[in-house]
From TrEMBL:
GO terms for molecular function: 4 iron, 4 sulfur cluster binding; ferredoxin-nitrate reductase activity; metal ion binding; molybdopterin cofactor binding. GO terms for cellular component: membrane. SMART domains: Molybdop_Fe4S4. This is Assimilatory nitrate reductase. It comes from Haloquadratum walsbyi (strain DSM 16790 / HBSQ001). Its EC number is 1.7.7.2.
Length: 695
């Protein structure tokens, strides 16, 4: 056995520390245990993280591929990189915006930084984003609007100090099991309460002291109803509001009545008042994709922040805490030059652009002035034929983006370079495939949802013809702009040092965090401007508050509920929503293979099944939306409200049904609500792979 190495679980954004050891066999299976010295989890682990670290699947991409004669054929690295770079250079000569690049919250900080450097500094395109926008953009926009900076104010240290835990539009029992265990321990030890807001009786909701079930797409109305109830009860922290916030009077003026807003949300007014009453003690409000993935995701997240501000629940043991799904979503936002330059430097600021250009040694004028329109609108531009080349890295938009048939067509019609570890729906559209290393084979750092940076280490070698993400990116970048990087393979330490220096003095200062420090301390939170500092609760230092807004005060909001983007009607009378299933990761490429013909299973309330009984045959039905149809198996389930259809978000066919409308503030898509109908399955189409049906 090789020596055990500390590393970080890449399953979700909790950021648990693991100890991994390469096994003595030819499969490079990694033995994994919790790291008792890691400050995040202290040795606690979940079986999913262990299982997916040790089981890298056999269906790997093991060599570069290039499309010849309509099919992907093996090729050499020189050929694959040469073709990819040549096509990129040709497109850039015409216009940098002929190129789109789509990254991922699965990249290390170093790889994400390198991709941003190539995309912004060598190519110069505005059409760059990452799949983190599909998950976290609304929370990010809300934090910026309220506090002037990205990232949740609380840390994990605040969970045991809270008395009330409100989980809104999230299911951490399934998505973040280690963090959920901390929540439940806090509830038990503090004689506290767990409040869950979710249309569905999830695993988390089943543990709740209070469970509110709003109609899908009405979370903003419910949050505003709770705000109105707080104010009507007089449980406002007037001292905090007066000293440290702006816009309170305007927010109050914009509120509906409790009864009116509760009726809109489909929740009893007394249940609304019950929730409001729990905010009188230390309260943490967590939210997830059920809030963010909505056309009013930013407004709803702002309303949840407003609840914390109004009740004085901003400070140790309380506050607004968005739950992040992907392991390095936060690092992507800080390091990747996506929505901001590294360190959350404002994108349009000329001084920041000059610093970036000088550091990268690229022409100032090449850097785009706009961060771009966002992931979904980049897909829109591809669909309109406005972009010639797309390069995807560790992301699977064909499965993860709404109205996925349209996405697939758009990618098939462009020259697609795909860089990934496993075969995916997107790779089936690719012209060049660049195989990358996976967990346990990669070296770098990641950043969890509480801003803690930790190491990812390699205890196994990737297949012989597979390369590290960062080395692939550097090889492409150097072919576009000679000398952009040292010759691969790159030393991740030197890349991290470049990131550290660019973040020095910024809101996300990482200058005091080095690889040596991470080796001894395992994980360190930013801001950490020096080697002996570490970030704690944000905006709060020694009892003094200072938010990163122009006034130094936090800002209330006034957005009001509007109707859902696709209301039910006589033709499409049911509401489709999507959610996570236990044991499935992201778009499912680690837990299914390309020959898998298993149909997705829809959970439907028995009353709905009886109401539409003619639409079922042999335990199956066809779910149809205005965009597509999908054959599904059916599971009668009392946890799903009547009138709703629940489907797993991970199956590649589900997003053929979903709606591509986006939040106007964040450009995050509305994945949690659309109108559908049920049809009887055509007998001759029952064996269609993956359940897809053509209209």
């Amino acid at each position: 056995m090789k020596e055990t190495q500390p590393t970080t679980c890449m399953r979700c954004a909790v950021g648990c520390g693991y100890l991994q050891t390469e096994a003595d066999d030819d499969e490079h299976i990694v033995d994994v245990s919790g790291d008792p010295n890691h400050p995040t989890n202290g040795g606690v682990k979940c079986q999913r993280g262990v299982r997916e670290t040790t089981n890298t699947r056999t269906d790997r991409l093991t060599q570069p591929l290039i499309r010849r004669g309509g099919s992907l054929q093996p090729t050499t690295w020189d050929t694959a990189l040469g073709v990819a770079a040549t096509r990129l250079v040709e497109a850039v000569r015409q216009n940098p915006d002929n190129v789109a690049v789509l990254g991922s919250g699965q990249q290390t900080n170093e790889a994400a930084y390198a991709l941003g450097k190539v995309t912004r500094g060598a190519i110069g395109t505005q059409y760059y984003d990452a799949n983190t926008t599909l998950c976290m953009a609304s929370a990010v926009a809300a934090y910026y609007q309220a506090f002037g900076s990205d990232g949740p104010p609380p840390t994990y240290d605040d969970i045991p100090k809270a008395n009330t835990h409100i989980v809104w539009g999230a299911n951490p029992a399934v998505a973040h099991p280690v963090l959920y265990s901390w929540i439940m321990n806090s509830v038990t030890e503090n004689d506290g309460e767990l409040i869950v807001v979710d249309p569905v009786i999830t695993t988390t909701a089943a543990d709740a002291d209070i469970h509110a079930q709003p109609d899908p797409g009405t979370d903003l109305a419910l949050a505003r109803a709770v705000l109105a109830a707080v104010i009507a009860s007089g449980n406002v922290d007037e001292q905090f509001v007066d000293r440290h916030t702006k816009g309170y009077a305007e927010m109050v003026e914009s509120l509906p009545t409790v009864d009116a807003a509760a009726e809109t949300a489909g929740v009893a007014p007394n249940r609304v008042r019950d929730i409001a009453s729990t905010l009188t003690v230390n309260t943490l409000i967590y939210w997830g994709m059920g809030v963010n993935q909505s056309i009013q995701g930013t407004g709803t997240a702002r309303a949840l922040i407003d609840l914390c501000l109004a009740t004085g629940n901003v400070g140790p043991g309380s506050g607004p805490f968005s739950l992040t799904g992907q392991a390095n979503s936060m690092g992507n936002r800080v390091c990747a030059s996506k929505g901001t330059w590294p360190g959350h430097r404002a994108f349009g600021d000329s001084a920041n652009r000059k610093i970036i250009a000088d550091t990268w040694d690229v022409p100032f004028g090449r850097l785009p002035k706009s961060p771009g329109p966002g992931f979904i609108r980049i897909i829109d531009a591809l669909a309109r034929g406005n972009i010639d080349i797309c390069w995807t890295v560790a992301t699977n938009p064909v499965a993860g983006v709404p109205d996925s048939s349209r996405v697939e067509t758009a990618l098939e019609d462009t020259f697609l370079i795909t860089q990934d570890t496993f075969r995916s729906d997107t790779i089936n559209c690719a012209d060049v495939v660049l195989p990358a290393a996976t967990w346990g084979e990669s070296t770098g750092t990641v950043m969890n949802m509480e801003r803690r940076i930790s190491r990812v280490t390699a205890s196994a070698d990737p297949p012989a013809k597979v390369r590290q993400d960062i080395d692939i990116i550097a090889a492409v970048g150097n072919r576009i702009h000679a000398g952009l990087f040292n010759s691969p393979p790159l030393d991740p330490t030197s890349v991290f040092d470049e990131i550290r220096e660019l973040t020095a003095g910024t809101n996300a200062d990482m200058f005091g965090i080095t690889y040596d420090r991470l080796e001894s301390e395992r994980a360190v939170r930013w801001p950490a401007p020096s080697a002996d500092t570490e970030g704690g609760y944000r905006y709060h230092d020694g009892g003094e508050w200072s938010f990163q807004t122009a006034s130094g005060q936090a800002r209330f909001s006034t957005e009001t509920h509007t109707q859902v983007p696709e209301p039910v009607d006589s033709e499409y009378p049911l509401t489709l929503t999507t959610g996570r299933t236990d044991g499935v990761y992201n778009t499912g490429v680690r837990t299914r293979d390309d020959t898998d013909t298993e149909r997705p299973t829809a959970r439907i309330h028995p009353e709905t099944i009886v109401q539409y009984l003619d639409s079922f045959e042999r335990g199956q039905t066809v779910i149809t939306s205005r965009r597509s149809q999908v054959i599904v198996d059916v599971s009668p389930n009392d946890d799903i409200p009547p009138g709703m259809v629940w489907l797993p978000i991970h199956n590649a066919t589900i997003n053929e049904l979903t709606l591509s409308a986006v939040d106007p503030h964040s450009a995050e898509p509305n994945l949690k609500q659309c109108a559908v109908a049920l049809l009887a399955p055509a007998r001759q189409k029952m064996d269609t792979p993956h359940g897809a049906v053509s209209k």
